[in-house]
UniProtKB/TrEMBL annotation:
Alphabetized InterPro entries for the sequence: PLipase_D/transphosphatidylase (IPR001736), PP_kinase (IPR003414), PP_kinase_C_1 (IPR041108), PP_kinase_middle (IPR024953), PP_kinase_middle_dom_sf (IPR036830), PPK_C_dom2 (IPR025200), PPK_N_dom (IPR025198), PPK_N_dom_sf (IPR036832)
Cofactor: Mg(2+)
Protein name, as recorded: Polyphosphate kinase
Its EC number(s): 2.7.4.1
Amino acid sequence: MTNSDPVPLVDAGLPPDRFLDREESWLRFNGRVLRLAQSPELPLLERVRFLSIFSNNLDEFFMVRVAGLMRRLATGLPVRTSSGRSPHAVLGRLAGLAHQLSTEHAEYFRDEIAPLLAKEDIAIVRWADLEDGERARMQELFRTRVYPVLTPLVVDPAHPFPYISGKSLNLAVQVRDPRNGTTRFARVKVPPLLPRFIAVAPGRFAPLEDVIAANLEQLFPGMDVLAHHTFRVTRNQDLEIDEDITENLLQTLERELLRRRFGPVVRLEVEDTIDPRVLDRLTAELGVEDEVVYRLPGPLDLAGLDAIANIDRADLKYPRFRPSEKVLPPEADLFAVMRDRDVLLHHPYDSFTASVERLIEEAAADPKVLAIKQTLYRTSGKSPIVDALISAADAGKQVVVVVEIKARFDEQANIDWAQKLERAGCHVMYGIVGLKTHCKLSLVVRQEADGTLLRYTHVGTGNYHPTTARLYEDFGLLTTDPEVGEDVNAVFNHLTGYSRDEDYHRLLAAPHSLRPGLLERIQREIDNHKAGLPARLRFKCNSLTDEGIIDALYRASQAGVEVDLLLRGICALRPGVPGLSEHIRVRSVLGRFLEHSRVYVFENGGDPEVWLGSADLMHRNLDRRVEVLIRVQGDAHRAQLTSLLDRGMDDGTRTWKLGPLGLWSRQRGGADLQEQLMQEHR
């Protein structure tokens, strides 16, 4: 497998304005997250959590998508936008929408959520609202726990303007020397390792920056503190690595992670009460223009609200849900079940711990298991799967782990895991030059009682991450089908060595067979419809931006094929355009769990062909990653998957609907699909 050039548009004769802008589409997705926070039918602390998620999402959007556009424009590199608009026009539209959403987000917390929290005896209070006793406790806390870790940095001829780290919260302070009247600017960084909101009394919390600001005279003794203002910067944190000229990817990536901390500023957030002169000083020193300045109601950095959302108040949260173990009961022999039949898992409704984790842990402990092969894209800080792989290596089993150390924002964690696995004796690989390894595969080789070797395989849509497996909706297939075992073993051989074998029995793999395989099957639906045979396309994935796939779907619609798309995030396709896409419907399910699975259903003349796997319909997935889809064979499993897609598209299900202009409308009322699935699994 090697990297491949992007596939050109399949039909340049279609209307030139047929694509929506992908960055704007992502912002509108985050707007839907904000709408969840504004939903009065949701428990209050879950609404707080969605406010935190919105902030985290927006941070990543600026650090990667906006930063990438700005970098390419600044360096003169070519920029191709999906909508066809100029890059400057796209940046302008993004800035306008991002400003609107950011302000709405901050104002909604201040005007709606904070008062609702106060009614539930959870108050987020500013310093001016504290009682005398509370202030005294906070001053003592400042002296003992906060003051020792603060470092005020003054700006004068001997001290240049300090480096401001990305996503850090800071105080811009103006101080005056009473002896000579000299005024200086200083910066105080809010320590990121201390709680974002300090408990001042049971159920009462103050922003950490307020506690620091109220005690600034201790940091500047003998000086007059004239003013202080909170600000926050976001920096470019995308990585650019030329793997073709890199001899040691691990060392190069570690150097780039250090360099990433010093990326250019792409956003400056300030409280809307900031003194214009202080703001002018900040923009000049940081070298930013006014359009990247976001003036917001305080407090800034509402990503820290996750700590409030985690307060132990079950009455203000979703009812607790315990994943089901009925698919693989604890008393069942897991290997015997897999030998008997394929097992389709639907997380988080089916327990990840009792299935996927259990497979690797039992394989590590089973003396009949000879080898384990595993891909890791993202995993948790304490990973039972990694621990099991280390135990397997300690037991003398052959353990091969393909760790994707370029997984965005998890690079350092994956480097640490890779080194830990290597020290334990595992064979650790980093995949293929120029490609990210995004497929979700586990392979266990076991010697059976009759002496034969049997492969036990897991192919999934989600990461081997025990924490997100309780929050992300994903599918996985457990099987001992010899063809799947042979296919997955061949994929691992691609990843760990040199191989040109690209013929698979039940897999489609990027970057070679996945794109042509999907296009061929879309065309088959068109041909079947023309021949009077049953024809229909039903896709569920996170994002749809690939122009070649979109054009194929447009052609299917023009031919009369019904196309149903269940998408969580970005969609560059315009549905419902007469003469182009009137047979295409796009829906989105947002709720308690993050919809993350990828399922592709082709009607195939009445004998539906169903695929699941790791790939979204984006350039990077089809051309620049190692991805795998597996064909699901069992009638019951195919029916379960197609039924899920049909329920998601049903007008009686609570969803969002995408219109031809790229705007989403909310279908209120109706059934909550995720709640229904929880009830069914209970």
